[in-house]
Amino acid sequence: REEKMEIDGEEETYRDPSHWTIPGMKNVKDQIQNFRWGFGDQLSIFSSPKDRNSKSKSSNSVVSTFSWNKCSLEAKKLFCESHKYFVDIQRLSQNVEESEEISHKKFSSKLLQKSSLYRAFITSFVFSMQESIANSSESIAKEEEIRVSEQFQIANLVWHLAEIFLLNSDDNLVVDKSFSDGEDDEMDEESRPNNPVFFKLIEWIDLYFGGGEYLNTFAEIISSNSPSDHPSYFDLMLKFLLRGQANYSIKLLDLHPKKNEIEHKNLKKLLENMPTSIENLSNGYQSDREIMESLHLWRKDCLTLKKDSKEDWMNELLEVISGSEKGLVDKTDTWYELLVAKMIYQEPTLQRAEIHQLAQQCIANYPSLTKLDEIFLSIMEFDSAKALLDCFEFFDDCWLVAHLTDLLHHANVLDSYVLEGTNTDLREYFISEYCSQLLTNKEMWQICIDYFTFCPTVGREFIQEILEKTDLDSERKFFKVLDICKKLEFGEQERNVINSFAAQKMQHKQYVSALYWVLQGGDVARADQIADRILREMNEGLILDSVHSDLFLQLASDPSLPSKVAFLLQYFSLEQLRLNQDHTNYCRAAIQLLGSNKIPQPLYLQLCRNVIPLLAVSQLSTLEIQQLMTIHTNAMLSHRNSRREVNEEEQKLMEQTRLVMMQNMSRSILQPKGSNSLFR
Predict the structure, then answer these.
(1) Angle at the Cα of 461 (from 455 to 462), degrees rounded to 5?
(2) CB 78, CB 125: distance < 8 Å
(3) Does residue 1 register a pLDDT over 80?
(4) Which residues, in sequence order, are CB contacts of 309 under 8 Å at separation 6+?
(5) Is the pLDDT confidence value at 562 over 90?
(6) Quick one: average pLDDT of 59-82?
(7) pLDDT at 485 over 70
(8) 25-59 per-residue burial string, b: 16 or more CB within 10 A, e: under 16
(9) Are 73 and 148 in contact (CB under 8 A)?
(10) Residue 654 in contact with residue 639, Cβ under 8 Å?
(11) CA 354 to CA 345: how far, in whole Å?
């Protein structure tokens, strides 16, 4: 599967990986132990322990070498989208610090919006995973996708609860102060609007603990021919009441065949007047005292109706809604369901700071506490550090702890907590752990750099390490890495990256590009070596194209070029004259270059080969030809005095050059004015 994805503002093609098969592995149980870790995320599997201990990489010994540098399309979408939210939060926080126009309340509201976006995308990710599971035919792939899907469903559950308790920490459980748009401090207790935060808890339980199933069952019951005979009829009515959703229970009650009897009418009226139902608490203004008085009277009415009731199901229901401890415990399945039920029927005015005490009471009825229960309880106790550390232990990856910790950090509800044995706080530690997992996929390097950019303690160190280990497999990636080095003022890394890229150019015989980047990196010795190599290649017939010409023009603007590179540019300019058939100027430039005593012997001979045929068609003066003869005579004397033996070809070429120049010299003296040729 291929899909276009946007990463850091640029569209890239991503291929969904397949699962591995290991060729030649027949006795897996015997052979799987014979492996050796390779670089990064690579693993080599061998046919025997002897091969495993050998340093040889012979194809006969290695059964298979493979890497898990891969993740699903759905996972990559999650990583890219959450990266955007993360960066947005950092920039928002910077704007708050730099500007006084953004109030703390407005900033908190923005953080809540970002939190909702995180949760919405988790939900979307889980939905995509479930679709993929339904369409998957590979059992191994399906097992992994199911595991990931379940992990992120739980992550969403934890995140939502943290949002309710930690990000809404200024709100009363009964009165959400944000409802009054900042004027709540001037309102007395009698006039505060009723908007209980436990609505959010009910929403939380509804989303993750059977709410959808209850609604499906509700639809099934009301569409049946005999609703009251449905096996879930009474249980569902009770479940809705345990969550304060009296309107659904009333609708079910209206489907009962005895709905017109006085007892049923009294129950319906009682439910309609339930003071702590979602519907009633959402309307009007009541003080805590008024709510408790109304609840006290209503519970009395429940007990009165219970005494007169002759139906068992109705007695059970009335016992629960009258706030009976036994009734609530017997009819709830989990401690957090019991917590919400107690808040509705016993303590609707409970303050946020007191809720963990009620939670402890509820837990006493459910002795087997799981790690997830401990996370929930830590959140309710506002112990964010413990909750996050428990999450770090509970979840297989660090996505949740990295992003949730960052959000809580910016909300100023995460106390400074430095991990033992490290110099980093929770936020930077979890971000670094998350990025270390992301980096098993090589496409994620740039996203990780963005994360570390906002880690003042460990960020620069990790960014340097990432940049040094990033494969420069394209010019596009090279320029990205180089730009990051420049922005962050990583001088050493910039030089290393440039030299590494130049080395790649050399391997691909792109010598001029290599020279350009070596000079940018300041490696003069290496630049001289490459310049010599280019000159040799040009001597052997290498023709440089327009791309190289542009690079040479850029180099020519630098006055501090090494001598060999400067000579290369001069020789390149000379070659351009020859290729453009500007014979006269070519010969004149060649004479100037030959007289500079900078030209190496192989190039001297090549230049002679090029100049001799052009003397006849060029318009050199007698003085210029005489100058060329003098240079050539000195070169011949130099060769004779040198210890190096001049081969037959060189000797023949030099003698031929001298002969042609003498001929042209004599003819140039005899040539009449206005003649354009020395041989006319």
Answers:
(1) 75
(2) yes
(3) no
(4) 263, 315, 318
(5) no
(6) 64
(7) yes
(8) eeeeeebeebebeeeeeeebbbbeeebbeeeeeee
(9) no
(10) yes
(11) 16
Write out the DSSP string of 275-319.
Answer: TTSHHHHTSSB--HHHHHHHHHHHHHHHHHHHHH---HHHHHHHH
Q: Which amino acid is at 413?
A: V
How many Cβ atoms from other residues are within 10 Å of residue 268's Cβ?
A: 17
- Give which of 588, 572, 487, 566 is closest to 519, Cα–Cα: 566
Instruction: Provide DSSP, 637-679.
Output: HHHHHSSSPPPHHHHHHHHHHHHHHHHHHHHHHHPPTT---TT
**321 neighbors 273 (Cβ within 8 angstroms):** no
Angstrom distance (rounded) from CA 303 to CA 460: 67
Whether residue 6 has pLDDT greater than 50: yes
What does each C-alpha distance from 9 to 5, 39, 81, 447 come to in angstroms? 10, 30, 12, 11
User: Which two structure tokens, joined as six digits, stand for 487?
Assistant: 């922005």
What residues are paired with 193 via a beta bridge? 285
How many CB atoms are closer than 10 A to CB 399? Answer: 22
φ, ψ of residue 154 to 5 degrees: the values are: -70, -40
In this structure, the number of other CB atoms found within 10 A of the CB of residue 75 comes to: 20
Tokens, residue 221? 């019951």
User: What amino acid occupies position 305?
Assistant: L
Position with higher pLDDT, 211 vs 609: 211
For residue 66, what are the β-bridge partners?
43
CA distance 426 to 42: 30
Which pLDDT belongs to residue 474?
A: 85
DSSP state at residue 425: B
- Taking the whole predicted model, whether its pTM rises above 0.85 is answered as no
CB 530 within 8 Å of CB 511: yes
Measured distance CA(653)–CA(69) in Å, rounded: 60
Q: Three-class SS of residue 14?
A: strand
Please, which residues have CB within 8 angstroms of residue 301's CB and are 6 or more apart in sequence? 270
Residue 254's pLDDT is 94
Query: In the 8-state DSSP scheme, what is residue 613?
Result: G
Identify which of 369, 322, 330, 326 has the alpha carbon closest to the alpha carbon of residue 346.
322
Q: What is the pLDDT of residue 579?
A: 76
Amino acid symbol at 150: E
Q: Read off the pLDDT of residues 131-183 as tens digits, 9 standing for 90 and up.
A: 888 887 776 667 878 888 899 999 999 999 999 999 875 543 333 333 333 44
Looking at 163-287, list the stretches that DSSP marks H as alpha helix, in order from N- to C-terminal side: 198-208, 211-222, 233-242, 246-253, 262-272, 278-281
The pLDDT tens digits of the residues spanning 268-309 come to 999 999 998 888 877 766 788 888 999 999 999 999 999 988
Taking the CA of residue 179 as centre, how many other CA atoms within 13 Å lie in the half-sphere pointing to its CB? 19
Closest listed residue to residue 460, CA positions, set 439, 495, 427, 484: 484
pLDDT tens-digit series, residues 83-131: 999 999 999 988 887 776 667 778 888 999 999 999 999 999 999 888 8
